[in-house]
Amino acid sequence: MRDLFATLPDEPAPPMPAGYLDTVLTLGRRSARRRRIGTAAVWAVVVLALAVLVVPGVQLPAQPGAPSKKPGLPDRFAGYSLLTSTVTKAPPGRAIALYGYGNGELFNMFQPLVVGADRETYRQVDAMQERNRPSALLAPDGTRVLLGDDRGATGDLVLVDLTTGKRRSIPLGGPVGVRLLAWSPDGRYVAYSAAPLTGSGEFGSVNFVDPEVGRTGTLRLLDLSTGRSTEVPAVKPAWTAAFAPDSRRLAVQVGQEAHLIDLDGRESGSVHITAGRELAANVGWSPDGRFLATVPWAADGPFDGTVGGNTNHGVFLSIARNVDFIAITDGGTPPPTPVQDVVQLLGWRSAGSVVIATTNAAGQLSLTEVQLGAGTRRTLSRFDTGDTCELGTQTCQVFDLQLATGLLPDLTVRHAGRPQRGPWPAALTIPVATVVLIAALLLWRGVRRT
């Protein structure tokens, strides 16, 4: 090899073109800048993607703001979303509505939801999810939800605070089946029916608690300030109930009679209810104290010793009926004219105005205010019934709808903005964030090779 190199001509290297070194340095710097810009762009995409994914999934320490002076109802309820957070993870503050939403044709994807009275907050009531979506009551002021258990006998009721997300267990003194009936306007008392359970689903339904308690349940009055329940043995089987506007009396239907009792269980009278009808649950006593509102039986009515006792709890709201009114005392002002085409009576704005659920020919559910006597109607809000449930295969249905009855007199209707659903579920945030990180890594490696 030494000899071979020795034969090469000993000539100097050709001179470089003018400005060659400057050109090479400029190109090198340009290439380095491009690599840095590409890397920075990739990491900017990563940071932005993580911000989009992680920020909605992080619970901020701030508590819900103070309630506004006037509670509001959105003029349109938001559609179904799997990204809706829970009350425990992100307390929504006081609610204007509690309802079940979804469908179960192919997949059981129902959601128990509360909607904010002060902002566009939507939250799943996870305590209800954990108890398989039992029947529940929304407090008149919209700050709490009380639930039992439809799966069988339970030893406690669960009180959920919507402003903090905390739960309180209220012992019942032993396992019993429970039907929640009514919440007093002052927020202190809850009427419920309780009975030992002997069945195990023989009524052909997953929820056999409601019908069995409807046949054998005894009225109890719960004082939420002390957690103590008082049994009223004479009122059995308690079917539906509604508190008087002063919270000192209670109308409880047994058979076709509405018994008027005070908080000590003493009866002061009764009102006969026409066969085939029942006292409107929780909202049946008018604000002026003069009338009881009745609706047709949802199923086969109160238990009469041989038949009845099926509550039809959990059925989609779609069947239009009528609301009639009965005077509590004779000789007073005649009852208002019946209200037709009512899917559900939801509460009273005043002694002369009620809020009802109605439906149109397309099956869309609306909340409507009706002026009694005049019969004039005003649509307050509508539900989305689009094909967004069960992964876009079914229409969305509403059931077990309740409003915060104590907020209705001051209720305003607000334009529905973008729904605030709270932090994303971790089960969704983590996989999506992982996919984004892997994609960003592959992109970064590709930029480096280039």
TrEMBL record:
Record keywords, A-Z: Membrane, Transmembrane, Transmembrane helix
Entry annotated with the keyword Transmembrane: yes
Domain of life: Bacteria
Sequence intervals crossing the membrane: 37-58, 424-444
InterPro entries recorded: 6-blade_b-propeller_TolB-like (IPR011042), WD40/YVTN_repeat-like_dom_sf (IPR015943)
The keyword Nucleotide-binding belongs to this UniProt entry's keyword annotation: no
Gene3D superfamilies from the UniProt entry: TolB, C-terminal domain, YVTN repeat-like/Quinoprotein amine dehydrogenase
Protein name: WD40 repeat protein
Organism: Micromonospora kangleipakensis
